[in-house]
Amino acid sequence: MDDENVHNEIDERVVAERKLTRRRLGVWLLAPLGVSFILLFIFMTEWKDSLTIRKYDVLGIRIVSKQEIAMIAQAVVSKDASMYGTDIGIIQEKIAAQPFIKSVTVTRQMPDVLRVQVTERDPIASLNIGHQMYYVDIDGVLLPYTQSSEKLDVPVISGINGIEHVRTGEVASNNDVYQAIDILKTSQAIDSSQYRFISEVNMNNGGDITIYSADVGVPIILGRGDVAKKLVTLQSFWNTIIKSQDPKKLRYVDLRFDEQVVVKWDQQTEHFPKKASL
Asked: Are 184 and 207 in contact (CB under 8 A)?
């Protein structure tokens, strides 16, 4: 019995010594690996700190120039500034302050590029305020009347008072501004050619709304209300009646009446049933 106990104790010691040996061997094997990871981390940190901004990649622009966006960014951080030491949030904030910029995202592209992805505000019209021209988008945001690489061929909104205090980048909160924009949005929804047909929307300072055709500048009196119905009537009437004659002899078209379209020519006035024009 004693001999058996002795053998058991010896076996347990051997097993314990083997486990201890394996642990020591594991520690010695892991130590170089751990040191390698530490060295790699130090190297990566130093490498990232050495990266500098050398180029701006500007995407999504159509109106604002790439040079202008790059200049705004460079006014915040100079070229060759640290890629990862630069606060890109500040760059986004400065670019977003440009009135034509609706949204902007700045990201880092290894090894030396800052990518600027922008969404611009699209002017739907130009707006005459106190003999000064501006652009305005579908949200009513006032935009500077500047030259761009793309020609902005948009209708004019006129005949609105009380918005002289509005500055670029601000919303022109005015019912007539919203109604004029709604007329143009409705014309776009009907047909893109209908939108291009309109050269001006004159709100007449709260009076009857008058639009002007782009081809011969004919005044078309809409009045107020039922805009979509009147624009559909106008498109059909113009294509079936006016185009069959000489539009240059046309003085005006009046759509204010429920049952008829009134047309004034150089020498006469005609009344057309609205149903006949549709």
From this structure: no
Report the pLDDT averaged over residues 204-223: 93
Show which of 81, 96, 120 is a domain's final residue.
120
Q: What is the CATH number of the domain that holds 106?
A: 3.10.20.310
Owner of token pair 């009907």: 190
Q: What is the dihedral of CA 75, 80, 85, 87, to 10 degrees?
A: 20
- Looking at the structure, tell me whether residues 230 and 253 fall in a common domain: yes
More confident residue, 4 or 225: 225
Q: Please name the residue that has the structure tokens 């940190």.
A: 45
Report CA-CA distances (Å) from 145 to 48, 92, 225: 43, 23, 30
Residue 33 inside a domain? The answer is no
- What does the alpha-carbon distance between residue 7 and residue 5 come to, in Å, rounded to a whole number? 5
Per-residue pLDDT, 278? 45
Domain limits for position 192: 123-277
**CA–CA distance, 270 with 263 (Å, rounded to integer):** 5
Angstrom distance (rounded) from CA 201 to CA 230: 14
> What average pLDDT score do residues 47-54 get?
65
Question: What's the Cα-to-Cα distance from 237 to each of 72, 124, 210, 230, 268, rounded to whole Å?
Answer: 50, 25, 17, 10, 18
- Report which of 133, 76, 140, 144 is spatially closest to residue 104, judged by C-alpha positions: 76
Domain count across the chain: 2
- pLDDT above 90 for 28: no
Q: From edge to edge, which strands make up the β-sheet containing 113-120? A: 55-59, 113-120, 101-109
